[in-house]
Amino acid sequence: MRATVLYGAGDVRVENVPDARLIEPTDALVTVSRACICGSDLWPYQLMQPGEPPRRMGHEAIGVVEAVGSGVHTLKIGDVVVMPFAYSDGTCAFCHEGLHTSCVHGGFFGTVELPGAQAEALRIPLADGTLFALPVGADDALMASLLTLSDVMGTGHHAARAAKVGRGKTAAVIGDGAVGLCAVIAARRLGAERIIMMGHHPDRIALAKEFGATDVVKERGEEAVARVRALAGGLGVHSVLECVGTDQAMRTAIGIARAGGAIGRVGVPHYEAIPGSEPAFYNNLMIGGGPAPVRAYIQELLPDVLEGKIEPGRVFDRIIGLDEVPDGYRAMNQRAAIKVMVKP
Ligand SMILES: [Zn+2]
Fold it and tell me: How close is the Cα of 67 to the center of ligand 1, in Å?
C-alpha cells in the first residue's frame, strides 16, 4: 500500500510500504477515506534532525472498518469511523475521567512507534476504545467537518475549556492556523461575548470573522499585547486560547490575560520553560491545556456538526490525492494553504 514517510527536514515521500494488518486481537484495520495534514506535522517537517528514524506521518482520518480482531466487540466491518489522534482503551482511570490522551495503555498515531494516517490504510490499536463510529454514510456531505473531530476542532474546544471560556467573557485566540480557527468556533459556541483573533494572514482572518471573531489584532509582540489590552478595556481578556506553541506566543498570552484569567495552551510547546512566571504569578493566572482528549469531545461536538450549527470543515482549503502529499506539506509550510485534506 501507499503511505507517507518523513525522512528528514523537508523530505517527505509517499512510498510503497507493507500493507497494514491486524496484529493484536483488539486491533481494527481501517481503509482511509479522508486524512489531512496538521500544523503539528510541520514541526518535524521543519526540524527533523539527521539520524532520527523515519516516521510514517498522519494522525487524523475518517475511514471504513475493513477488519476487526477477535477482541473487538463494538465495531463491525463497514462502519464509518473517525479516529482521534491518540489511541486509548476507554476503560482506564484517565479514560473514565475524559482524559484519553493520558490513557495508561494509549499512545499517538504518526510516531516512530505507530504508523500514521496519511496512507491508504492503517492499524488502529485498542479499536473499541479509540474509534468512534459515525452515523453517516461514506460520502456524507458533512465529511470535512466530521474529519476535524480527529483533532483540530477537538483541540480548539480543549483550548476554550482550559481557558475557561464562558458566557459573556472576553477571549483572545493566538494563532490563525486551523486549530486557532476552530478555537474561535469553540469560544463562540461556549458563549464568549468578544473574541479577538490574533493573526495576520488575510484568508485566515476572513474565515475567523465568519466563525465569530469580533476583533482582529495583526500586530505581534509588545504591540499586540498593547492592542489587545486596549480592546479589552485596559484590563486584559478573561480567556486566552494559545494555539501556536512558541515561547513568544506564551509571552503574549501572559501579557494579554486579565488578572485571574486563564490560558489554555494547545500548541505543542517548543520551549523548555513557560516564560513570564512572574507576571503570571502576580496576576493569579491559570495556565492549563495539553494534548486534547478529542475522543471525549466527539460525543459533545458531533450533534452540532450534524445539525450544521458549526462548520469546522471550512478550514480545509485544498484537497489532494495521496501522491500529492509532499506538495501539501510545502503548501502548508509556506502558508499557501490553511489545511490540506488528503483523499487516498
Ligand atoms: Zn485508558
Answer: 23
